[in-house]
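Researcher: Next sequence.
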Amino acid sequence: MRTMALVLTAGIAFGQPALWEQHMKEGDAREQAGLYKEARAAYQLALKDEEKPSDSGFRQAAAWNSLALINRYLGFYSEARQQYRQALAWCEKSRGSSSPEYANSLHNLAVLDYLEGRLDEAAQQFRRALKIRETTLGESHPATAQTLNSLSAVYAGQGRYVEAERLCRRALAIQEKGLGAEHPQVSATLDNLSSIYRRRGQLETALDLSRRAEQIARKAFGDQHPLTCLRANKLAVLYVNLGRLPEADALLRRVLEIQLQGLGEDSPDVAATMANLAIVSFRRELPVEAEALYRRAMLILERSRSNDQKLVTVLSNYAWLLRQTGRRGEAKKLEARARAIAMTHRSDWGHYTVDVSDLLPSH
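Model: Next structure:
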C-alpha cells in the first residue's frame, strides 16, 4: 500500500528527471492496481536510471524503498530486507536519520520484522519511527497514526492486548478525523483492531470490525486487489471461528482464485489462503481436497522460506490432519520438521506469541 512507501518529491525538488520519474509513476500506478510484478519491473528500471545519483541519493532511496515494498508483497522477504537497508542508507545520506523520509523506510523495515516474527526488533524499530514522525510531522499526522497502528499489532502479537487496543484506537481516531472514515488506512487499522478482539475471544465484535475493514478495502481498491484479498481472508477466519463454514468456504475459494491470477503460486499470501481453505475442507468432510491444499501451501512456503512461522503452522496443521486419518508415521515426520525449523528461531520466538493471525488452527 502506498502509505508505506517513500513520499516522492524528487521531481519537484530536483528538476524533472524524466525517465526516473516516468518509471516511478508507472510503478506506483501498477502497485495501486495490484499488479505487483509489473510494478517491480518499473521500479527496477527506475533504479537503473539512477545508477549515478544526481541528487545526493534521494531518488535512489525512493526507488529502493518502493522496490522493497513490492518484494515484500510478493513474499521475497530476503530481497526486501536488503533493499530496505539500501533505502535507509541513501535516506540517511540525503536527508538525515531524523527525517520523515528516513522514518518511512525504518517503518517499512519494521513491518518486515513483524511479518517474520521478530517482534522485539519490530517494536524497537517502530518506536524509533514513531518518535521521528511525532517530532517532525506531529502527533496527529496520518503517518504517525500508521506507526501507532503497526506498533499496536506488535503488542498484540506479544499478548499485550490493553496497550495494543489503546494504540490502535488512538490511530483510528487520528485517521478518521484527518483522512475520513472510508480511507484505506482506516481499513488497515480496523483490521488490526478486529484481530485484537478475536485474540481476546470477542468474536462478534471482531466480525463487525473485519466486515467494515473489508468493505472499505473493496471500495478503495476493488474486488481483485491483493489487499482486498488479505482483508477477506481475515474475514473468512472469523466465519470459521463462528462456525459459519459455507460462508468461509465461498469467500476463501474466491480469494484464492484472485490471488493465483494476480500473485502466482509463490506468494505466502496464497499459501495462507490455501491452508485456511484446507481446514475448512477437512471440517466439511473433504479430506482429499484438504490434503492437496496443505501440500501446495507447504511447497510454497518451503520454496520461499520467507515466513517460517507460517511454515511451522502449516506443517503442524497438516500433521494433525494425517493423525486424524490414521497416518501417524507421516504425521511424526512433519512434526519433526516443524520442531527443527522452530528450534532455529528459538531466540526470536521463545518469549512471545509469533503472529500468524491469518492462519487458522487445525483444531
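Model: The chain is about 75% helix and 0% strand. The two ends are 33 Å apart (CA to CA).
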